[in-house]
Structures are given as structure tokens and as C-alpha cells.
Amino acid sequence: xxxxxxxxxxxxxxxxxxxxxxxxxxxxxxxxxxxxxxxxxxxxxxxxxxxxxxxxxxxxxxxxxxxxxxxxxxxxxxxxxxxxxxxxxxxxxxxxxxxxxxxxxxxxxxxxxxxxxxxxxxxxxxxxxxxxxxxxxxxxxxxxxxxxxxxxxxxxxxxxxxxxxxxxxxxxxxxxxxxxxxxxxxxxxxxxxxxxxxxxxxxxxxxxxxxxxxxxxxxxxxxxxxxxxxxxxxxxx
Length: 237
Hints:
By secondary structure, the chain is an alpha+beta fold. The protein contains 6 helices and 14 strands. A hairpin with a 5-residue loop joins strand 5 (54-58) and strand 6.
């Protein structure tokens, strides 16, 4: 069994840049490596957030769906939740919150996860519409996204922090997904204000990186031709 200080990652954000969007891992397989996580489906099919072993997908119509074990993904993170209380925080913008998290955790050179449950306002999320082969690049596909907003909402934020050293494997900094308490709203977080929340933290000393070696397009691709960092930050911002 995966240890509680291991972050499991299937695929890399870099492989999405040139449009390697085929599903190369099933949800059933991903859940063997964690009960908490985030990701996206084949063809960037919506945004995923896994809580307490249940995988929720926010699709481009804003629906929140529980996906089956057969759901395929090109990229996902998961881990077994073992969060420790970090702080009770309130009245913070996204930028101010993330600055405080770096200060509180003192862990900017390794991976960690943040879980925040509480009240949020001015929440802006997105989900991308599923594309089909032949896939376009990440930048092109991400343009076909839906934006969702809530003035006030209770819910859970799951975030993975990746150090600058690993930019490309993941996006350096925080990668935030959200699910409302009533399971009717969520997605990849673009902006938010934390009104009040319980912040918990889980540090990882091991990154288990799983690559889609059975996918010929991935194995044959020349990533030196791609503008990986710029395209990732443009699409994930």
C-alpha cells in the first residue's frame, strides 16, 4: 500500500502541452493510490476532485458527476488523506492565502497538499469541454472552457503544491480544485476569496511519478519542440 507521505501522479502537465490528451489511466487504477485527488479526463473532459474516495467530475456544463472506475485520464494526482490541522484563516484573497500557506508550512521545496473546508466568496472556476481525436494542443483545447461563478459558497478546496524545481512535471506553485458542500458547483479554481476556513496540511517526501509508457504517441513525442512552461502557466492560470 502507498505510504501516507507519497504523492502519486499519473502523467505530467508537460505531456498535455502538445495535445497528448488520450486517457492512459482509469479511475479504478488511480483510486488504488489514493482517496483524495485532482485531475482531468480524456480530451480535458472536465475537472476532477476526489474526496473521501469518491471521484467527482465538474463538466463543461457545470454539472457535478460521480464518475465510474472506467473513466480515463491523461493526468491526475492522488494520495491517501492524512491531513493535520494547520490554521484557522479568514478574510484572505487567493494570493494572500497562498503566501500565508508558504510561510506556515515552510515547505516550498517539496510537495504538499492543502485541504480547506469553509466559506468562500467571489469564487471563479472553470471546466474544459471534452475534445476528441485528433487532439489539439493544450492551449487550443483550454480555450474551449466554461467559467462558473458563485458570490458565496460553502465547500472544500483541495490543492497540491509543487516546487519550482518540478515545473513542467506539475505546475509550480498551487494547483487548486473546488467542490461545494452541496455537490452542485466546482472545478479548477481561477480566483476566490476565503471568508473563513479550516486549513489542513499533508507533507509528501516521495513523488511516485507514473508515465504512460504503453501510449505510442507519448513515447514518440519530442518535447524539446514544445514551449512547456509558458503553455502550462497560460492554461492553468
